[in-house]
Amino acid sequence: MAGRREKKTNIQGKWLKEALAVQEVTVYRLAKELGYSREKFYRHIGNKTYLSSESLAEIATKFPTMNMRYVLTGEGKPVIEKAVS
């Protein structure tokens, strides 16, 4: 049986960090625009915590070109590319 303090490995904070870097958004700016402390995101980037679905939804709303699938799974590219019509 897994303990509650087991290291979280299936969602990695590095994907958020990479997505922010591609968008040229700092953790400071992300936290300020969403009204959270920087520490919330630094803890996630350090793989110490998960982000809530509410936080992820706020990020997706504030930064619509950020690929949330990438942030959650590392799959695809950090930025959503617009389809050419």
Offer a quick outline of the entry.
This protein is about 50% helix and about 0% strand. It has about 80 residues and is mostly helical.
Would you kindly provide a written description of the structure presented here, covering whatever features stand out?
- 49% of the residues lie in helices and 0% in strands.
- It is mainly α and 85 residues long.
- Helix 2 (27-34) packs across helix 3.
- The termini are far apart.
Write the layout of secondary structure elements.
Blueprint: H1 13-22, H2 27-34, H3 38-45, H4 53-62, H5 68-73
Helix pairs in contact: 1-3, 2-3
Query: Which spans of ≥5 residues are poorly predicted at pLDDT below 50?
Result: none
The helix-and-strand class reads: mainly alpha
Strand content: under 5%
In total, the number of strands is: 0
- Kindly provide the radius of gyration, computed on alpha-carbon positions and rounded to a whole number of angstroms: 13 Å
- In quaternary terms, these chains amount to single chain
If you average the pLDDT, what whole number results?
88
Q: What is the straight-line distance between the termini? A: 51 Å
Helix content: 40-55%
Shape: globular
Highlighted features:
single chain, 85 residues, mainly alpha, 49% helix, globular
